Amino acid sequence: MEEKSKNAEIAKLQKEIELHNKEQDFSKAQEVTKEQEKVIEQLNREKELKEQVIEQQQARAREEQLRNKMIIVFL
């Protein structure tokens, strides 16, 4: 009888360990997901900044073209 009790206790402890390990794995997965989200947000910010720079460069180029056309017209 005592051995059955010990085996039952061992089985219970093993299940608790398995559950704990699964919870840790889930927690680690959540941490990784949060880190990935941060990286994605950073990449999106960088992309937006690059797009803004490109838009500014294009606007400057258009202004320069207009200036050049105006100079040609006045000459």
Structural overview:
- The model has no long low-confidence stretch (mean pLDDT 92).
- This protein has 1 helix and no strands.
- It is mostly helical.
- It is rod-shaped.
Net shape: rod-shaped
Order of helices and strands: H
Q: Beta-strand level of the residues, as a percent range? A: under 5%
Low-confidence stretches: none
Q: How many DSSP helices? A: 1
Q: Mean pLDDT across all residues, rounded?
A: 92
In short:
The chain has one helix at 2-74. By secondary structure, it is mainly α. The N and C termini lie far apart (111 Å).
Features:
75 residues; mainly alpha; 0% strand
What topology emerges from the helices and strands here?
Blueprint: H1 2-74
